[in-house]
Amino acid sequence: GKRHLNFFTKAYEDVPESEWIIHPNRVPQIVSEATWNEANRLLGEKRKELMIEEKSKIAGHFNGSFPLSGKILCGKCGAPYYHSIRLIGPKGLKQKVGVWQCSSYRRYGVNHEKGCNCSFVYEEDLHEAIREYVFKLWKNKNEVIGQVVDALGKAFDKNDFVSAKVDRFEEEIVRLNAKRDNLIDLYSDQLISKEDFSRKAGQIGKMVQELEGQAKNVTKLEHEIPDNIDRLESIKTFLELEFSDQSGIDGEIIKEVVEKVVVKPDKSLEIDYKWTTQSSCEHLRTG
User: Fold this and answer.
1) pTM metric for this prediction
2) Confidence of residue 284 (pLDDT cuts 50, 70, 90)
């Protein structure tokens, strides 16, 4: 065979082609070689079509990276929305249209206990609503840039404060560990009793444990702040771009500025944007 089980590693390994043992025509033919080749060619063509068109019909199949991938949630069941392609229009004139649909509906339908009947959303309508809102914000960019610069200043100040706090925690932990080492020396020299050693060592150990926990939480925050600064910097860069109209706001920009989209049961959409605490509420075509 082309693969074998390695007795020592218990793993399957490829056999070098030079060691293959081939028995031509070992299995009797039931069709001619020409028929066999033609059948495989036709199957190959069908497989290509399936890969291009039909996989989008499989619940949860990922068709590639979309600007809103992972950002759209169902307002009824909380499940993520999946992207797919639908054929829309009268017979003979149908066109492929991108839509987003609740994954619970895709997987379970409506009647199942885990199912959902929340609407699907047309991708282009959603993008158009976002472009319109973002372009409106961009036209008021002087005000928004001021907010972003102010937020950046606060983020840098917070970063400096958190870094200083982490340093203080680390210094205090080093001091307490040195004190514990000194306590061990005193006990080894029999200068303190076992009871005093146990009591004081326990107190120091508890203090170190508490400080390490606080330092861990602050360190986590310290790692998050640079991400927020990078995000604010990218928003500032976007606002400094020039657009003649909203058509210039492409998929990359949509991906960058949108935080989350919630499709509500009343067929409205709540769209959260990364640089503002405001949300836009849109009523679009849904199905």
Assistant:
1) 0.49
2) low
CA 134 vs. chain centroid, Å, equals 22
Q: How buried is 130 (Cβ within 10 angstroms: 0-12 exposed, 13-18 middle, 19+ buried)?
A: buried
- Report yes or no: 82 and 74 within 8 Å, Cβ to Cβ: no
CA distance 270 to 262: 5
Our measurement of the distance from residue 13's CA atom to the centroid of its chain's CA atoms, rounded to an integer in Å, reads: 34
Report how far residue 200's alpha carbon sits from residue 183's, in angstroms, rounded to the nearest whole number.
8
Closest CA to 156 of 98, 233, 79: 233
Structure-block tokens of residue 157 = 């100040």
Report the b/e string of 39-76 with b at 16+ CB within 10 A: eeeeeeeeeeeeeeeeebeeeeeeeeebbbbebbbbbb
Q: How far apart are CA 75 and CA 267, in angstroms?
A: 9
Q: What is the pLDDT confidence band of residue 119, given thresholds at 50, 70 and 90?
A: confident
